[in-house]
């Protein structure tokens, strides 16, 4: 049977046709353009879901997702040094916020941090930045043992070496999950295909470049299957074409990672049907 691509408002079966919240995504935003867009969107009742930093034309740029939805109080920042992020971490944690997302990125050999925090209910959480590959593995083992699930994973570069920033949460529902980093694009695709055949869906993807090599990190979950599309290694015009196509088909952009291949900007994305 053909699936109708009519907008929900026109569908006869509107009761079973979930309505997506209004959302917008932008990329190649310079810090000034991002600030302007941020003020405009927040003024219209949008919340920032995701902010990913990378380099374009020698400047920091941002790829972001805004969604109009009821939200617990939230805060975000970008362009903070490790030390400034650490100070903000203590301040916001003391105010009852928790990290929803943290991304590290590198501009001119210097690491910066962008994060979204909110006060939504959470059983327990952990967030770490600046982990080396072995540090990441050690925390991974420890938090997984304690029953945490990795909810966000960001790779970046410090002095030509890999660093990771992560968010972990304890959840009531215990869906099986899997995470892997340090994957080349071929390895990522092989991992993706293998996990898909085992019933896993990609829920997070991040591209990052270390010492001239591009890697991917991902999180997969064994959840009831729903329409989902994962795309990576996209230049801006390919991402824009995807955007036009998938948005028209009713997909929502859930994960949006901006990164570099050499000095060029690239994008990775996960689209889902709400
Ligand atoms: C990274 O490696 C390149 C050569 O591959 C070198 O020129 C550069 O100085 C290194 N950067 C740092 C911060 O170590
Ligand atoms: C970066 O790559 C260069 C060669 O391209 C290599 O000589 C150097 O050791 C690498 N640096 C690190 C930290 O792996
Ligand atoms: C990451 O991948 C590279 C090559 O793809 C490999 O040489 C390196 O050992 C890997 N690092 C870890 C921590 O698995």
From TrEMBL:
InterPro entries: PGH-like_rpt (IPR049511). The keyword Signal applies. Residues 1-20 form the signal peptide. Pfam families: BTRD1 (PF17660). It comes from the Eukaryota. Keywords: Signal. This is Uncharacterized protein. It comes from Penicillium argentinense.
